[in-house]
Amino acid sequence: MTESKQSSGGKPRVVVVMPAYNAGRTLQMTYAELPKDTVDMVILVDDASTDDTVAVARELNLKLFLHDRNYGYGANQKTCYREALKAGAEIVVMVHPDYQYDPTLVPEIIKPIQEGRADVVLGSRLLSGAPLDGGMPWWKYVSNRFLTGVENWIFKLSLAEYHTGYRAYRREALETVNFDLNSDQFIFDQEIIAQFVEAGFSIDEVPVPTRYFAEASSISFTASSRYGLGILWLVGRVALHRAGLWTQKQFQSLGKRYQEVS
Question: Do the Cβ atoms of 109 and 93 come closer than 8 Å?
Fold first, then answer.
């Protein structure tokens, strides 16, 4: 289900979305390293930060959307994707503004979509060689490998990693799945992948380096444990949906929902 839609300028319109929460210390250097010859627009959605994230975003003249309270990481992404589609994005790239993922790699992330080889691209830290050397905690590495194995088994894929925040989506993929029904929390990342799989979209990976440091966001061990249990519950629901034992609207495709700006 792969097709590369071209803009009038001969290349797809690329919109970077940044789901932000207290990213004031890292936003400027993240934005500075985005390849401006590749990216047509940057949208930042602030999830009621308590630091100077909004002030920095305004200084950088980003397209800014504000949540009136902290709704959660998944809810932030929902706003990101709605606004990117309304802005006419043909390829949407999620770049975390905490500088955990290398912004200069956007051209590599979108390349499989531009070439018609994929609808969804994940930036995989586990393809890059040694994630533990990049600072990934050992318990995150072990849980990542285990959960990825379970997801590969259910989804019938062979990806190196599902648990990455560096992603690119073709417009049609986001228009087709019902991401509004997904969680407002971290499990959103895996629910939308399950939706893409069920809709028949192709998924590719590119290697990205692992970067863990004090300013980068990271969920706690307790939150990670809840996230892991949520993934097991998710793949169980997918299995029941496929078997016809528990049909769920969340995994059913939609028609076109968002109109481009003129």
Answer: yes
Tell me the pLDDT tens digit for each residue of 141-156: 788 789 999 999 999 9
Cβ proximity of 248 and 207 under 8 Å: no
**Rounded to whole angstroms, how far apart are CA atoms 2 and 223?**
35
What DSSP letter does each residue of the chain carry, written as one string?
-------TTSSPPEEEEEEESS-TTTHHHHHHTS-TTT-SEEEEEE---SSSHHHHHHHTT-EEEE-SS---HHHHHHHHHHHHHHTT-SEEEE--TTS-S-GGGHHHHHHHHHTTS-SEEEEESTTSS-TTTTT--HHHHHHHHHHHHHHHHHHT---S-S--S-EEEEHHHHHHS-GGGS-SSTTHHHHHHHHHHHHT--EEEEE------TTS----HHHHHHHHHHHHHHHHHHHHHHTTSS--GGGS------PPP-
195-253 residue pLDDT tens:
999 999 999 999 998 665 455 555 666 777 888 899 999 999 999 999 999 999 999 98
User: Positive or negative CA dihedral for 233, 92, 136, 20?
Assistant: negative
Question: Cβ of 135: how many Cβ atoms within 10 Å?
Answer: 14
Say which CATH class 14-250 falls into: alpha beta
Instruction: Please report, for residues 113, 130, 243, the alpha-carbon distance to residue 126 in angstroms, rounded to integers and kept in the order given.
Output: 21, 7, 31
Q: So where are the chain's domains?
A: 14-250
Q: Are 27 and 103 in contact (CB under 8 A)?
A: no
